[in-house]
Amino acid sequence: MRYAHPGTEGAIVNFKERYGNYIGGEFVAPVKGQYFTNTSPVTGKAIAEFPRSTAEDIEKALDAAHAAAAAWGSTSVQARSLVLLKIADRIEANLEVLAITETWDNGKAIRETLNADIPLAADHFRYFAGVLRAGRQRCGNRRQYRGLSHS
């Protein structure tokens, strides 16, 4: 299947000229106002401008994360699982848009982004939603070191 170039007639994807950092539930300009142009390997032309974020932007993002931590921390495992499932649903509902965007961003063939990369992203959210519901409350194994024995 062929897709129209973003921003042309019949295109499924249209990029904005400039994007911001997504912090605290909204897009915000970078603190120092610096951007870089992302060029598509598909055409060699600019896609859009993106924030050239600095330590100050990271601090803003960390502040927002810390502000949200208490509410998220008190959210039940079942509710967290549902959030992950909703994310997977949204990824699947926007499969073509996400796949085309990914292709224009990194140059990978649309058949790969459409049939592997984006569906696998949804699968990962579903997997971890299931992990939450399975009752494991921590990640990984923590084994106490007990020394070596050899004869």
UniProtKB/TrEMBL annotation:
Molecular function as annotated in GO: oxidoreductase activity
Keyword Cell division found: no
Entry annotated with the keyword Disulfide bond: no
Residues covered by the Aldehyde dehydrogenase domain: 34-134
Record keywords, A-Z: Oxidoreductase
InterPro entries: Ald_DH/histidinol_DH, Ald_DH_N, Aldehyde_DH_dom
Matching PANTHER family: ALDEHYDE DEHYDROGENASE B-RELATED
Name of this protein: Aldehyde dehydrogenase protein
Record organism: Pseudomonas savastanoi
